[in-house]
Amino acid sequence: MSAEGVRIGTVCVLDRTPRSLLPGQRQILKDLAAIAAHELELRRIASTDSLTGAWNRRMLEIVATNEFHRARRVKRPFSIAVLDIDHFKGVNDRFGHEAGNDALFGFASTFRSVMRKEDWLFRIGGEEFAAILIGADGMAAAEALERFRREVADRDFAVSEGLFRMTASGAVIEAADLEGTPAGSLPGLLEKADRGLYQAKREGRNRIIRVA
Question: Which one of the listed residues 127, 128, 143, 191 is annotated catalytic?
């Protein structure tokens, strides 16, 4: 089943007598595909940040809940991180709010290009993001986010005024260990990660802190 050229699923139509679908029947299936595509788009809009394309806080809660259940069931780890852009206010003050928006979009785009497809990025505040790294314990997650941090620092970001450089800081905490045992609740883990983020800021920014 496809709508406007996008494959969205499969419908199996069974009949005891082999025959082709009538034009009216084909139209019904097309209408069903259009309805399904519209519903998927509404769900996407309700769960994503329109500026950056990252998922929103509501989706963070849903994904984290699912991952806690999955970690216990299949005994695999995952980690949660809090990330933000260093001196973001300075970007707005120097280049304007449009440039700030460009910086946020560039940050999210860099995450998607560097990290794995199964890793999740959520915008949870102005310049603050959270991430869930599936199947990664604390050490593996910290190493992956360090690669992301280096890529942000080394990349030229385009804004209306030209090119500029920025850095990012973050903190990562193991949410479930190799046996799938949870390390705490989502609010508690985010609070610990936030404290780690403040530590990264105090130590000079442009760094990833692993929270024990």
Answer: 127
